[in-house]
Amino acid sequence: MDFKTLFDLSGKTALVVGAASGIGRASALGLADFGAHVIVADLNLEGAVAVVSEIEAKGGQATAASANLGDGASVTALIDGIDKLDVLVCTPAINVRKRLLEYSEDEFDRVVALNLKGNFRLLQAGGRKMVAGGGGSIIVFSSIRSQIVEPGQGVYAATKAGVLQLVRTLAAELASAGVRANAIGPGVVNTPLTAPTPSATGIKDG
Predict the structure, then answer these.
(1) Cα separation of 184 and 89, whole Å?
(2) What is the pLDDT of residues 8-17, one digit of tens each?
(3) CA within 20 to 30 Å of 54's CA: 28, 48, 80, 169, which one?
(4) Where are the beta strands (DSSP E) in 75-178?
(5) Per residue in 69-101, is it b (16+ CB within 10 Å) or e — as a string?
(6) Looking at residue 186, what is its pLDDT?
(7) How far apart are CA 81 and CA 63, in angstroms?
C-alpha cells in the first residue's frame, strides 16, 4: 500500500503548535512528508525556524510562526494570519511534578493556564476558522495521565483529562460542520517535558 497516496496532504495547510521540539516537531515533520504546507508555531521561535529548515532540507514546505497560548491576542493573530486551516495539531503542556499537598496555588494556576485554558483558546479559534472554511481536522495531544495517575502527577493529569473532554465535546459540536476533533493520549515519550530525572524526586515522569 502506498501510504503517501492514502494520506496525501498536498495543497493542505497544517498548523502545529508546540512544534519546536518533541512530539510537535515530529508531527510537523510527518505532515510535511505527506505534502502539507506546515506552519511551525512555537513560543520558541528560534526552534521553530530550525524545524522549518529541517523540513525544507527534505523538500517540504513550511513557515515559522510565534505562538503563545498564554496570550489570547497571540492566539487570535496566529489563526487570523492563516487563509484556510485544514489541520490543527496542538501539543504544548507543562508539568510541575509535586504531590498535591505540596502544590502552591501559583503552580496550580500556571499548569492550568497553559494546559487547559491555553489549549481552549487554540481549539476555539482554530475551530471557528475551520467551520468558516467548511471543514478540517483538529488533533490535540492529551496524555495517558488523563486515564492513569501516579503520585506527583495530579494537577497535570487533571488538565489532560479536561483537554480530553474538551475535544470530545468539540467533536460532537463540530461534526455537522465537517470538522473532526481527536485526542491522542501517549505514554511517556522522551521529550523536554519528561527530561527531569525521576530519581531526583522519587516520582516517575509522564
Answers:
(1) 10
(2) 999 999 999 9
(3) 80
(4) 87-90, 136-141
(5) beeeebbeebbeebeebbbbbbbbbebbbbeee
(6) 79
(7) 12
Nearest to 30 by CA among 1, 49, 51, 50: 51
Tell me: pLDDT of 103 over 70. Answer: yes
Distance (Å, whole) CA 98 – CA 107: 10
Residue linked to cell 503563545: 68
Q: Which residue, chain included where needed, has cell 527530561?
A: 195
Nearest to 24 by CA among 73, 81, 59, 69: 69
Which amino acid makes up residue 186? P
Cα dihedral 179, 180, 186, 189, rounded to 10, equals -40
Q: Is 65 helix (H, G, I), strand (E, B) or coil?
A: strand
Q: What is the pTM of this model?
A: 0.88
DSSP code at position 182: E
Query: What is the pLDDT at residue 145?
Result: 87
Which positions are catalytic?
156
**Separation between Cα atoms, residue 67 and residue 124, nearest integer Å:** 15
Distance CA 48, CA 38 (A): 11
